[in-house]
Amino acid sequence: MGEKPKLILCILLLITLAEMLAMIIVDIVFRHSSFCLRFALIDSLLLVIIICPFLYHWIIKKKREKDKVIKELQLLASAIEQSSETVVITGSDGDIVYINPAFERTTGFTKNEVIGKNPRILKSGKHEHEYFTELWRTISNGKVWRGRLINKKKDGSLYEDDTVIAPVKDKNGNIVNYVAVRRDITEKLNMENRLRQAHKMEAMGQLAGGVAHDFNNLLTLISGYNDLLAEELPPDSPLSRFVKEIKKASDSAAELTRKLLAFSRQQVLNQKILNLNEVITETMTMLGRLIGKNIQIETSLDPSLKIILADKGQLEQILMNLTINARDAMPEGGQLFISTKNTWLNNCELKKTELNAGPGEYTELSVKDTGTGMDKQTLALIFEPFFTTKEPGKGTGLGLSTVYGIVKQNNGCIQVDSEPGKGTTFRIYLPVSATKK
């Protein structure tokens, strides 16, 4: 028998017994006949029959209302537990009393590590004291606070989230808890920054390409007239040395133009089926001369490396520029590691790279140094043309922007990892060619 029938039966039995007991008492006190007892039983049964439907519907209604409340609470609890957004509930004193699983996934802290603690355990130091003072003043006054917080995970890494903190009040209007709902927007912000950077680089590329073409036309005239002048001068003419200097300067300007065209992806390509290992091996002698004796080069080339469709001269340009960049980052000497391998990039991995390449099979070129490294501010600017950390006169600021342009022209992507004092690693991903060599 279920709970509902049992409850109804008990109530009816109690009503019947109470009615009978009342009539027995009346019979004894007033010396009535046993007819009174029979009448009491019949009266009780009639009363039960009359009350039973109303009592049943009342009990069923209350049970349904209770079941509905329980179901809603279970649904709410399930939604909070399975939510992808972080939910934190604190007491009125600010100490944490509840976190959902999303909090554990986002921050790395477990429930046992944070229950009873203040949310200050996530404090990153990126906000002024007044920022949190205003936050606490708002929610203490019973209002909802909305804003962004830069927090720190258990492993020390930072993340940014959109946060809404609201007070929870009892029936008397007193604040008993605070509930915070947070959405991690770190990846979203990174994607927005990459998109802005891509648009900026695209605009700068168009500008650089236009300037380079105009400049190249002027150089053609300068070089042509200079060659005619050289032919007209006698070999022993004192003006010959000036002609040679003009030639030297125009050649340097032409090289600068080629870099600008490479960055703007307007350079004429001579693409062929190539094995990147072979290009690296052929370029090693030249790279050794570039870096000097105080830097050791180590290579690890995958013998099963797949072929790519690329311009050999551009690949050599990438290797030279990255090697020179590494050399300048190691003025006291160090090590340079060049490696290759086959890899597959999915959408998740591509989000970590520069440029908007598609998922698929790639050949990876890795150039790693043990130099000074770079901070995040510098990393955000390294591919911009004419940006350089070198002293005036010691760099054009086009080395890495040229690499950027070449890789984009070849439908590849770039990933850079660097920290101050920990060196820098450039990873170039070029799509594997479907054509056999």
In short:
Helices cover 51% and strands 21% of the residues. The chain is α+β, with helices and mostly antiparallel strands and 437 residues long.
Give me the secondary-structure topology.
Elements: H1 3-30, H2 35-82, E1 86-91, E2 96-99, H3 101-107, H4 111-114, H5 129-140, E3 145-152, E4 158-169, E5 175-184, H6 186-232, H7 240-263, E6 271-274, H8 276-291, E7 295-301, E8 308-311, H9 312-328, E9 334-345, H10 347-350, E10 360-369, H11 376-379, H12 399-409, E11 413-418, E12 424-431
Parallel strand pairs: 7-9
Antiparallel strand pairs: 1-2, 1-5, 3-4, 4-5, 6-8, 9-10, 10-12, 11-12
Report strand %: 15-25%
Q: How many helices in DSSP terms?
A: 12
CATH topology of the largest domain: Heat Shock Protein 90
The percentage helix is: 40-55%
Q: How many β-strand stretches?
A: 12
What does this protein look like?
The chain has 437 residues and is of the alpha+beta class. It folds into four domains: 3-81; 83-184, PAS domain (Beta-Lactamase), CATH 3.30.450.20; 186-268, Helix Hairpins, CATH 1.10.287; 269-437, 2-Layer Sandwich (Heat Shock Protein 90). It has helices spanning 3-30, 35-82, 101-107, 111-114, 129-140, 186-232, 240-263, 276-291, 312-328, 347-350, 376-379, 399-409, and strands at residues 86-91, 96-99, 145-152, 158-169, 175-184, 271-274, 295-301, 308-311, 334-345, 360-369, 413-418, 424-431. The mean pLDDT is 79.
List keywords for this structure.
single chain, Helix Hairpins, 51% helix, 21% strand, 12 strands, 4 domains, elongated, 437 residues, five-stranded mixed sheet, Beta-Lactamase, five-stranded antiparallel sheet, alpha+beta
